[in-house]
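A quick word before the example. In earlier lectures we treated sequence and structure as two separate objects. From today on, think of them as two lines of the same record. Here is Crooked neck-like protein written that way.
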Amino acid sequence: MIRGKAAKTKVKNKAPAEIQITAEQILREAKERELEIVPPPPKQKISDPDELADYQLRKRKAFEDNIRKNRSSFSNWIKYAKWEESQQEIQRARSIYERALDVDYRNVKIWLKYSQMEMRNRQINHARNVLDRAVLILPRVNQFWYKYVYMEEMLQNLSGCRQVFERWMDWEPNEQAWFTYVKFELRYNEIDRVRTIYSRFVTVHPEVKNWIRFAHFEEQHGFLANSRDVYEKAIEFFGDDYLDEHLFMAFARFEETQHEYDRVRVIYKYALEKLSIENRQNIFKQYSLFEKKHGNRFEIEDIIFNKRKTHYEDELKQNPFNYDLWFDYVRLMEDEGDVERTREVYEKAVANVPLKKEKRLWRRYIYLWIYYAIYEELENKDYEKTKEIYKFLLDKLIPHKSFTFAKIWIMAAKFEIRRKNLSDARKILGTSIGLCPKDKLFKEYIDLEIQLREFDRCRILYQKYLEYAPHNCITWMKFSELENILGEVDRARQLFEIAIDQPKLDMPEVIWKAYIDFEIEMEEFDRARNLYERLLERTEHVKVWISFAQFELLANKDDHQFGILQARNIYQRANKSLKESEKESRLMLLEAWLEFETRYGDEKSLASVRKQMPKKVKKRRKIQTDDGTDAGWEEYFDYIFPNETENAVHLKFLEMAKKWKQNQQQENTSNESS
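And the structure line, produced from the sequence above:
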């Protein structure tokens, strides 16, 4: 038994669904699934003329209404015209197309449909008239022209088709239109006409590929001379500025197929000469392959030479200040042996003067000039050119006020000497030391005069050299040596005296040693001993003391024992003098003294020196960085001399510690044995 109304269903979750379905989506899905099946319109059979007229009237009214609603919808016009055509009302269809063209005569589709209708209904003259009007109004629409020539060719109206092509070509259309014309004439084997078309075509579209097509046409039909003539005309047409590597490669391949190998080489070489650097890579590749197949070793080497040359030119075009690359380039040209071309490369190289007057930038550059001068002198024997190079370098190019190159002055002078122009060589070197004096220039000038035995000139040059650099000890030594060789001992000694009295010397120990050696060589031992004493007044260097002691042995070689005593006295004086100096210096002295006593002394003297020898101990000290922070500890060795009070206590402590350690080791050994 039902007690009442059923309880209402309650919606527990009232939140909106994650995916919302719209009415548009429902309708679209219904359309896709074809849920609404619309029955097709019923077929209507017309069997009466009145009924047909009524049907046509209703259809025309519907089409006219559609056109009236939207005149710019050309699909309505086309549908209308097609319907009239289906009703065999060609004149009405023609009228509809004309009305559509009045609306928009630029509509290509209307013109095409119009012409197709005329052709379908075999209205050839009408179709020709439509297409003729189309190409007059819209001559740049290629579809009209294609349709026109196709119709004429299908009708076998070849003359008419050719006329249409000529009218089309007068508008200079794209390449494909010209190829269509060419193919038309080829179909009827009109070779001369095709040649004429190609001649016009390559002037309208002057691309390299079109000239190559023209040449291929002549080749394919057996006109080899004409093909060669086309390639030559193409090279002449493009000139030197617009040549392309593909033209030369095609020309070379043609000649290779005709086994004209000499012509191929001429073509490749001409291309390498005329083409720019960027356009030569494929030429080199093809040329190399050709020579590997048909050439010899010399021709292959010539290709390699040209390839390297092109590489250098390409790199130098990007960076003309790469002097190392210029060196490689000029060496390559020198190896080839062409003097004029080598000179041209040298001139191009030296024209790249460094932009700044800094010697570091000029060092590599100046060697280009050096190589240039050597090349002209040794290879070409052109001495006037060599002289011009040196003169230009020294008089105009090198900024001597900022810096100079002694090497250039010297090379120019030696060149003049080789040409036996001694006065010019002296003039060059004299100008150099007057304009920009340098040690090397003075030395070379002095060496020249010494070789010529012009000693008075040498003296003058040495005086100027010492005025320029009075601190140069080597110069003082060389000057004194010259005077000594010439027998002027007093002059040499006086020069040494002047030298050691100079307030500033670059190597004073060298000049003192040379002076002492000079006196020893002259066997002036008293003078040498006096020099040692004077030197010790200025410096108490340990090496001076050791050398002084060794000198005493040499000076008293006739009385050997006296010499030993004198040397021992020097060592004793030195030991006393060096007590307050660095420990390393005193240790060096004691070691030399010990060696001396070992060789010349007795047991007593030897024991005396050994007693004074220091002991080497290891110590530790703190390390600090530059900013003053502690960086840990380091170990170092120190020397403790026995005659120092503080050090003696320290040594005694160390000896006691060492002795205690030995006793401990002995006790441990005895305990283990028991």
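Notice the following. The first helix runs from residue 23 to 33. We will return to this example when we discuss secondary structure assignment.
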